[in-house]
Each structure stands twice: as C-alpha cells, then as structure tokens.
Design brief:
The protein has about 100 residues and is an alpha+beta fold. The protein has one domain. Helices cover about 40% and strands about 15% of the residues. It has four helices and three strands. It has a three-stranded antiparallel sheet. α1 crosses α2. The model has no long low-confidence stretch (mean pLDDT about 85).
Amino acid sequence: MPRFTIKIKDKYFHWSTIVDAPITDGMNLEDFRQWYKYEYRSDYNEKLFDKMIDTLTKYPAANGNGNPIADTIDKAIRCNRAGKNESYLTAEQIYEQYKEII
C-alpha cells in the first residue's frame, strides 16, 4: 500500500493513498518514531533504521509533506476522503479530527 508521512502543525500522521486519509492519529515526532519502529520493525540494523526514520520525517518537518509527488501539504491531501462519509477535509480539519491518540 502506498503510504507517506505528513505533518500538520506539531503532529505527524501516516497517510494512505488507498483510503486517502490518515491511518494514524497525530503524534509528536518522538511518538511517531516509536510507532514507526514498532509497526515496521524487521531485521534492520538499529542505526540504519533510525536513519531511515530521520529521512522519513525530514521532508514533512520542512514542508508538512512526505509525498514525493506533491511539494505542499495542500497538494498532498487535495483528494482526501478523511471526513465523515469520505468527505474532503482541509489540513486544519484533519488536524482537529485526528490530532489525539486514542
């Protein structure tokens, strides 16, 4: 499944292009790193895995978006179905709806 990371304000979200919505609640950087390690851990070397996560979060930290095709957060989420009944949400609405870890 194609996935990438986005950052809205102070929260990181893992995004799925299959459902066109976040597949995680918003997390601060450290929580996101820990979640990612748990979710995708395999037999990787620890230092290599940490470097991969650094790269994964570098671009969202800079411009809010880790999608290699879109250069802004608005372009990355432009076709989202993150709202009720798969409706479109703005970045601010996504943040408000998904910001808390449950």
